[in-house]
Each structure stands twice: as structure tokens, then as C-alpha cells.
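Hi team,

As requested, here is the filled-out complex form for the iron/sulfur cluster run. I kept the field names the same as last time so the parser does not choke. Let me know if anything looks off before we queue the next batch.

— J.
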Amino acid sequence: MAETSRLPTPVAESWDWQRFGACRDMASEAFFSPEHERGRVRRRRIERAKAVCRSCPVLLDCRRYALRAEEQYGVWGGLDEGERNRLIATRRQTPAA
Ligand code: SF4
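And here is what came back:
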């Protein structure tokens, strides 16, 4: 059976923040890397996505979700994949209090 404990519960309230995201009417390509995107083009797209996130009223909700769900792709809550992966790795190495 798949391990699902790290996924958010399917409760409407836990997803409500998405209705207020600054990206809600934007194309997903602004936040997710198209296939074969590399180098400067990729970095610039990610920076543009992060700029949208910086003005987003639900940035912290979005970031919390993405870290908890360990989203593998895209910019969420102002963090790209590499930034989230480093935070997740640090969290795993930190003993629970
Ligand atoms: S923080 Fe960024 S990715 Fe998350 S809802 Fe806001 S604009 Fe969208």
C-alpha cells in the first residue's frame, strides 16, 4: 500500500488557500518547467514565478503544503524544487524534539 501519511488530508478547508493564490489565473507553464528547459531560460522563468509568489497573499500556506506533500516539481510558495529538496533533507536529518 502506498505511504500517504505525508499528504494533506482531503478536506476542503485545507485547499481553500488555493482560491486566493496570485497564480490562480496564470498558465501552469509559468511555474512548471517545460520538457528540455535548461540554463538561463529556466532560471529566468523560475525567477519570474518567484516574483509572483512574493506578492501572493497565501505564500506561506502554499509553501507549507508543498513541503508537507514533498511536491517534486515546480515553484510553490516561492521555492523551487532544489530549495524545497534541501529543506526536506534538513528536516529529515533533524531529530524530532
Ligand atoms: S505562493 Fe506562488 S505558487 Fe503558491 S499560490 Fe501563491 S503565487 Fe501560486
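Two things worth flagging: Residues 27-93 form one domain. Helices lie at 12-15, 39-54, 59-69, 81-93.

Thanks,
J.
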